[in-house]
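User: Hi! I have a protein structure encoded as tokens and I'd like to know what sequence might fold into it. I'm fairly new to this, so please keep things simple.
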């Protein structure tokens, strides 16, 4: 007998700092960025009323109707002004704007990425404190080393099933010296440490294990072999059920490996970045994973990808007939095929891509 189907939405990088932060009524003091935003608002008056719902655009209905929503929070959340030395890009948003995440029912925010330490360790501490006070689960950073390596534990509403999510980042390398940030590499030593970590920090018999990783370079269609090897290791040796990958700024392919799901690159969900035409970093989507309740277990059944576009600092659902929708769907089908996985472009229904896991 089939069990209840839960819907978990995975998204990539959510960058609410820099220009986006300046659009909110409360923002950190960045005069140059504020001037740029005023010019945008002059040409587009709608941006004058930018608020907590604005980054999500018309995707809010999908987020509000699902059981759990997962993102990578690609910014520090702090008023601390001391930047990490010799770093080219430093992103932060005002702590008041954490309301944007709670408004969208974001249940989990990954903090292991290359921007949460942009405003030094004091900025990271405020980021952790702010996310915690908002009631949002997080992993990949913490108050200390143990906190950074500890999993976030969530349960969908109306369910007793525990879902554990661990997070790590392979860059920047000089952040390896910060105990409160979970830095990883691809060595055998790190793999053995991760296996021990997951075995020792998971509660008894979690229903689902997720590994969320900020990995690889920007703008590369296929994951490097070391990334694929780590993803396979996390499934083979650590019992991971879903790999939530991000960092590339654009979509990458999906792999079904031994009945488990690997999303190598979710793309950027909302940001203020310049367009790189070849990689269409303005196109990504909601990666909705359907999970079936089977007694005390949860089983990943399928992935449904719903294309979105970053449009004037907001995410927008793409209609099936739009050329951008067709482009990103075709790209995911092509890239997944290169990983040995069949993805179906289901353009007759909602303009989605479907990957059956079991």
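Assistant: Happy to help. Inverse folding works backwards from shape to sequence: for each of the 358 positions I chose a residue that suits the local structure. Here it is:
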């Amino acid at each position: 007998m089939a069990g209840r189907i839960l819907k978990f939405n995975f998204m990539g990088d959510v960058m609410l700092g820099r220009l986006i932060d300046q659009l909110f009524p409360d923002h950190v003091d960045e005069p140059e960025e504020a001037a740029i935003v005023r010019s945008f608002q002059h040409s587009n008056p709608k941006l004058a009323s930018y608020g907590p719902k604005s980054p999500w655009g018309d995707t809010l209905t999908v987020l509000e109707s699902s059981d759990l929503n997962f993102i990578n929070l690609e910014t520090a959340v702090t008023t601390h002004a001391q930047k990490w030395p010799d770093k080219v890009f430093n992103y932060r948003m005002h702590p008041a704007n954490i309301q944007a995440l709670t408004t969208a029912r974001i249940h989990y925010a990954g903090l292991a990425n290359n921007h949460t330490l942009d405003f030094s360790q004091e900025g990271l501490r405020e980021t952790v404190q702010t996310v915690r006070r908002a009631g949002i689960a997080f992993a990949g950073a913490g108050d200390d080393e143990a906190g950074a390596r500890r999993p976030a534990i969530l349960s969908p509403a109306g369910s007793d099933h525990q879902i554990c999510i661990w997070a790590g980042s392979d860059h920047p390398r000089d952040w390896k010296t910060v105990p409160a940030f979970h830095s990883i590499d691809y060595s055998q030593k790190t793999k053995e440490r991760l296996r021990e970590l997951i075995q020792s920090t998971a509660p008894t018999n979690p229903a689902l294990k997720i590994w969320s990783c900020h990995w690889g370079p920007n703008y590369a269609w296929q994951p490097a072999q070391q990334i694929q090897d780590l993803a396979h290791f996390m499934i083979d040796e650590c019992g991971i059920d879903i790999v939530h990958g991000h960092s590339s700024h654009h979509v990458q392919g999906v792999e079904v490996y031994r009945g488990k799901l690997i999303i190598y690159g979710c793309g950027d969900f909302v940001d203020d970045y310049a367009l790189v035409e070849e990689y269409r970093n303005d196109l990504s989507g909601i990666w909705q994973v359907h999970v079936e309740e089977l007694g005390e277990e949860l089983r990943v059944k399928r992935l449904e990808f719903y294309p979105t576009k970053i449009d004037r600092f907001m995410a927008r659902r793409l209609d099936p007939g739009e050329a951008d929708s067709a482009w990103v769907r075709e790209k995911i089908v092509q890239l997944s095929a290169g990983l040995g996985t069949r993805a179906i472009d289901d353009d007759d229904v909602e303009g989605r891509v479907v990957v059956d896991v079991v």
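A useful reference point when you look it over: The chain has a mean pLDDT of 97. Feel free to ask if any position seems puzzling.
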